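Item description
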Amino acid sequence: MENFPIGLLALIGLASFRLTRVIVYDKIAEFFRSPFLDEIIEDGEIYITPKGKGLRKWIGELISCYWCTGVWVSAGLIGAYFYFPKIGIPVILIFAVAAIASILETIIGRLLGD
């Protein structure tokens, strides 16, 4: 661990960023969030609240918090890299490239006024 390359840290960081956003915000993961979260609309604002009690509520609280989810996603990606590299490395690369693409798209969209 003492020789953890900075480039690998950057790749896992980018992958963690993108996968966390998929879980917490993206529509594609809505089916995963819906058993654990309620959307409440008040005065035109949308609020997300955990459903139920116990484990269901705990998972809802976890996936409604970007920072909380990010910690667990990061731990999972690092674990996958070290313990299951044949799967972990491609997953990390895919999400890292997707993160770079989404960051570039956001920057270009803002520069062009989209």
